C-alpha cells in the first residue's frame, strides 16, 4: 500500500491509527526508526521517504514544496481508512502541513497535525541561501543545529552521500512561500527551549492554521531536542490525539 514514498517502520494489521513522520532537511525515513520501540502495538508507524536518499538515492530530488506535498498526499490518501496523525520535524513540519492541506481538500484530513521546531507560516522568514555555501561552511551550519546527522560529517566517505540531499532541501526551502491555510484538524506544536532559530513565540504561530484545537509543548534542548526523547514525544503525540478525539 505504501509504495516508494512511505516506509513502514512498525506494521500493524488492524491499527487504531497511523502515525506518519516527516523528516527534517537532509533527513531520511530511517531517522524515525527508534520511534518503533515507543509506539504501542495498535499504532502503525510510517515515515516519509524523500527522493534522492537511502533506497531512493538514484532518484532526482524534489524541485518544489508543491511537487513534494502532492506526491506524498497521493501516497497517504489510501491510508485514510484509519485516522492519520502527521508528525513533521523542521522542514518536515512544512511538508506535513502542505500534505495535510491537500488531503483536507479531498475530505481526508488527518486527525491531528503535529509540527516540530518550525516557525508557523505567519511567522516564517526568508530561508538563508545555505544551498550555495561551500562544503565546509554548509557542514558548519548543519553541525550548529546538532542532531545525529552531523555525525556523518566525521566520515569523509559519507559526505558525498549526505550533502547533496541537504543542499537540495535547503534550495527547496528557499523557494517555498508558506501560506496560512486553515485546517479542519487540531494542531499540536513542539519546540526546544534553546532553539535560537525557532523561538517559542514562532512555534506558537501554528495556532493560526487550525479552526480546531491547538496545543503547544516546549521541551528542554535545541533544534534537535527530540533526538533522545522518542518515548516522551510519542506519548505526548498519542495523548494529544486521544484528547482531541474525545
From TrEMBL:
Keywords: Hydrolase. It comes from the Bacteria. One of its GO terms (molecular function) is hydrolase activity. InterPro entries: AB_hydrolase_fold, TEII, TesA-like, Thioesterase. Transmembrane segments: none annotated. One of its GO terms (biological process) is lipid biosynthetic process. SUPFAM superfamilies: alpha/beta-Hydrolases. Residues 20-238 form the Thioesterase TesA-like domain. Belongs to the thioesterase family. This is Thioesterase TesA-like domain-containing protein. The lineage of its organism: Bacteria, Bacillati, Actinomycetota, Actinomycetes, Kitasatosporales.
Amino acid at each position: 500500500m505504501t509504495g516508494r514514498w512511505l516506509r513502514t517502520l512498525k506494521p500493524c494489521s488492524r491499527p487504531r491509527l497511523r502515525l506518519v513522520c516527516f523528516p527534517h532537511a537532509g533527513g531520511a525515513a530511517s531517522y524515525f526508526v527508534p520511534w518503533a520501540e515507543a509506539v504501542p502495538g495498535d499504532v502503525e508507524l510510517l515515515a516519509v521517504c524523500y527522493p534522492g536518499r537511502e533506497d531512493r538515492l538514484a532518484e532526482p530530488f524534489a524541485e518544489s514544496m508543491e511537487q513534494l506535498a502532492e506526491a506524498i498526499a497521493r501516497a497517504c490518501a489510501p491510508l485514510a481508512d484509519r485516522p492519520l496523525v502527521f508528525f513533521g520535524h523542521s522542514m518536515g513540519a512544512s511538508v506535513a502541513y502542505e500534505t495535510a492541506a491537500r488531503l483536507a481538500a479531498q475530505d481526508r484530513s488527518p486527525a491531528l497535525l503535529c509540527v516540530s521546531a518550525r516557525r508557523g507560516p505567519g511567522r516564517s522568514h526568508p530561508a538563508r541561501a545555505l544551498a550555495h555555501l561551500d562544503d565546509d561552511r554548509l557542514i558548519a551550519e548543519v553541525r550548529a543545529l546538532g542532531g545525529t546527522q552531523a555525525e556523518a560529517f566525521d566520515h569523509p566517505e559519507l559526505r558525498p552521500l549526505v550533502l547533496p540531499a541537504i543542499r537540495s532541501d535547503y534550495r527547496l526551502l528557499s523557494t517555498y512561500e508558506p501560506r496560512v491555510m486553515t485546517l479542519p484538524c487540531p494542531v499540536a506544536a513542539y519546540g526546544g527551549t534553546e532553539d535560537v532559530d525557532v523561538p517559542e513565540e514562532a512555534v506558537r504561530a501554528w495556532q493560526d492554521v487550525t479552526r480546531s484545537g491547538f496545543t503547544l509543548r516546549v521541551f528542554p534542548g535545541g533544534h534537535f531536542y527530540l533526538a533522545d526523547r522518542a518515548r516522551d514525544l510519542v506519548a505526548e503525540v498519542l495523548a494529544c490525539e486521544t484528547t482531541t478525539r474525545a
